[in-house]
Structure formats: C-alpha cells, structure tokens
Amino acid sequence: MNTSDVLLIGSGGGTKIAQALARLGKRVTVIERDRAGGTCLNRGCIPSKMLIHPAGLARRLRELDRLHLRSCNPAVDFEALVASINAYTDDTSGSLTAQFDQSDAITYIRGEARFLSDRVIAAGDAEYTAPVIVIATGARPHIPDIPGLAGTPFMTSTDALRNRTLPPRLAVLGGGYIGAELGGAYAGFGSRVTFILRSTFLKREDPDIVAEFTRAFAPGKILHDHAHVREVARRRGVFTLSCVSASGTPFDVEAEALLVATGVVPNSDRLGLETTAIQTDPDGFIMVDDHLQTAVPGVFALGDVIGRHLFRHAVNFEAEYWIDANFIAPNPYPIAYPPMPGAVFTHPEIASVGLTETAAREQGLDLVIGRAAYPSCAMAIARRLDHGLVKLLFARDTGKLLGAHIVGEEASTLIQELVLALTHGLTAADLYRQIYIHPAFPEVIRNAVRHALPRLDPQHACLF
User: Fold this and answer.
1) Which of 188, 244, 277, 378 has the most neighbouring CB atoms within 10 Å?
2) Above 70 in pLDDT, residue 264?
C-alpha cells in the first residue's frame, strides 16, 4: 500500500493544493487520468480565450467602416492558429508534470483513480491511501440523448478547441457560455453559425442583459430560440438536424460541423463511489459540508465536481481556503464564499455578480434599479458603440448594492469594482462619491448609479 500525507485526485484545482502542500513539507500523491492542469488549461478557459481573441480582432477589422477606415476581410490560417494554441497548452501541461516529477514531496501518477473503500484508492496496478484525500476531478461535457447523434463526428468544447478545419457552416446546440463563446469565435473567423436554443442565450443571466446581448450578438448569425432537436443525421459530410420550433413547426438545419454545448456533468461516476459512504446529489455532484468535507471524514471535494460554482476562480478560492483552514489556521473553520462573479467572453462580453432582478423579486426585496447604456459615456461614443448596458440593483431601505450586471466592451474588467463594492457592503452613495476617470468606460457605472440615486436619496435629484 502506497501512503502519503495527502492524496489528490485530479490536477486542475488539485495543482494549487499540491504545490502549496509541498511547500509546507507534506508528502503528496497526485493521481490524474488526463493531462495535468485540468479543464481550464487544457480544454477550457485558456485555449478558448486564445481562440476568441483573434476572432474578435478579425471581426473588428470587418467593422472598420464605422470609424471611416477601409474595412477588410482578413483570412485566417485556422490550422496554424489552433496548432499554436494546442502547442502552448500541451507544453504548459507538460511543464506541470515536470514540476511534479522534480519535486521530492510530490508523487505524480498518470492513471484512473477508483475507490476500493472509503480510504483506499486504486490506480493502475497499485493501491494508495492517505489520512486526507481530496477529490478535484472536475466535470465534462454533457451529451444529450438525441436520436442519431451517437456515432457522428460531432464536437464538444474539447474537440472544438483542437479542430484544425474551419467549417463553412457550424450548428451549435446550446446557448450557455460555452456555446456562445465558441460559436461566436467560429463566426468571427467566417463560419456561418446557427444556434439552436431550448430557451434563450445565457438563461441564468439577468433578462435585460440577455436581451441586450442578443441584440448585439445575433447579427450575422442564425438563431432559433425556444426550439429543440428531434433527430441528427449525417450524410456526405453534412449534418442535418431535424428541429421543432416553439410553435411546433418543423425545420431542418444543415452544417458541415456540429458543436454540442448543452452543459456539463460531474466526473464522479468514474470514481467507484458506490464502494464508499460518499454521497452525490441527483445530478451526480459530490455533496460536501461547509468545510468541503464529504460524508467520509477526512475525504474532501472541491471545484466543478461539487457543482457549487463552475468557474476556475471558484476552485482557486476553494483550494486556497482549504489549505488555510486545514494546514495554516490554528483551527479549521467553515468556508464563506464572498460574492462570486462570472463572465462570458463573447462579443459583447457579459459580467455579473450578486442577485439578478428575478432572484431579488422572488426574495421579496424592495429594489431601486439603476441602468445606463454604454453610449451614455464618452468612451463608448468615441468608439462608435451602439450597444452595451450596465444594470445595478440596490436595496431601497439601505442603498446597498445587491447585484451588478454588465453587457458590453470590457465587462469582465469593469465588474471588478462592483465585486469589491458588493463584498464590502457599499451603497449607491459610496459609488457615487468616487471620481471616475473621463473619458473611460467606468463612467457608465457612474451613470447607472446616478440613475438610481435620486430614488434612494431625493436630495440628490437636483444634481441630475
């Protein structure tokens, strides 16, 4: 039996833990079934942004006319671009493996981990145990049960980031952040992209933000919302999706490539949890308490596999908490999540933190809402932008910020001021009393605050 101080299953979120524990002098075993670095590095946020950025540049070059410059239609060497992205992620993953191998404190095992009992794990022909075990196995793309889909060469997000042929037409099944980001990127390079959505884009975002996003994002693409796919067929290199609209009208979508982006499922079903007392919820996510501990004492789980917040920055927070609570702080303490922001790296970007208006109304909260369109600020005017919106939710009785939602240029950066404000309980008056650089995009946040402030404090009405 191989033993260590801590055994980690998964090297995405587990990497941060392994490196920290090694610096603390602990002996760590890491078991990884795929490339080191997890989803974010290998098939998620890093390679997708490396694809999205040049796609955005290509789109901007085609829109230069609005600035009275001669537009052009840039050609992309898609094969070379994707090869360079894959080379970077593969090299970086390889460097993580090398770091593990060079560390005297870390034993890195490439293999499938499977529980034999509460505290014994098999990988390959060997067995491992430790007084502390951490499950950080993440999630993988969900594959819907659609007649005809199985056996066709459809793409998941993993495949779309390694595909080296730009298809003339791409059908995207799903309107979450993965489908919107990758479908938008392929459209930026020139594919004719059709989205088939069961409801709308990004249904968890604030409805006003989704409406503004759709208005800006949809042009140049084909959108079928509130529709579903009955059957998939592929003949002579072309997919045919037999669909039904919201009104019940059948229609077909044809495309050379199909991206299935219908969400994720946790990688808990491959762990042999049935041999343990570890519990999962009906969707397969591992259940943990407020110390991230499973039903088995000393066995913890974090990241996508517990399904709380499906962001890399969330698992980073959970990993840093777990190290501090269990190895640095004098006594363990429960996790307390601060407001969790999220962003969608489409064009335009979306970013949000806190409550949506729908969630706030369901809680019976009395709101004052401040809105400002991007063209209300000088920088948006200078860039000839005709889209973008900031929406801020304040509590009527206290003036405190409850939620912030942005769609537009640099939304993922602008939201950070509002994350700080929400974390520290700042009010509309606090945000108003700042000086905002002119002309810069943060002024649109000021304008949204100014829109709300007279209804929170009538004495300020004379200023606006």
Assistant:
1) 188
2) yes
pLDDT at residue 13, rounded to an integer: 86
What are the residue numbers of the active site? Answer: 438
Which residue ranges form the domains of the chain, and what is each CATH number? 2-141+265-328 (3.50.50.60), 157-262 (3.50.50.60), 342-463 (3.30.390.30)
pTM greater than 0.85: yes
Measure the CA dihedral 425/427/430/432, to 10°: 140
List, for residues 332-381, the tens digit of each pLDDT value.
999 999 999 999 999 999 999 999 999 999 999 999 999 999 999 999 99
Q: Can the peptide bond before residue 348 be classed as cis, meaning omega within 30 degrees of 0? A: yes
- 140-144-149-154 Cα dihedral, nearest 10 degrees: -30
